[in-house]
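Notes to self after the Tuesday call (sharing in case useful).
The group wants a holo model before anyone commits to mutagenesis around the pocket. I volunteered. Ligand is zinc ion. Logging inputs and output together so the record is complete.
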Amino acid sequence: MNDDDFDIEAVAQAARARGYDHMDVLRAQQEAAKAPPPPPTVIPEPEFPYPPQHALGGVVRFRCPFGCPWYHDENPGAEAPGRFMLPADFTQEDVTSAISLEAEARRNALLVRVERAITVHLAVDHPDR
Ligand SMILES: [Zn+2]
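Result:
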């Protein structure tokens, strides 16, 4: 299963059928995961400016799409993982689903941050484009 095949509603229905009491948390994770990422055309291809063994090896750099020296760095590997709850009788599927939801929510949040940074940069430094 890849991310595109992930059926969040099926997971939520299965959780409801088992009577989980953490549905508020799951719902919040679903909403975060469903938040639409910005259009890919706005976000340039990322660069990895440091080698993996470097202290900043996890940094992902997004350069100005118009080629000026501006860039926006993200370091997703340095973020603390988000929290999620599992029922007392959780299964491997529950764990996998919770991890996938949390990762998707963080990925979407990163894309939103990058899009905002680029949008602000374009408005400030390239207002005519
Ligand atoms: Zn620029």
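Two things stood out.
The mean pLDDT is 82.
The chain has three helices and two strands.
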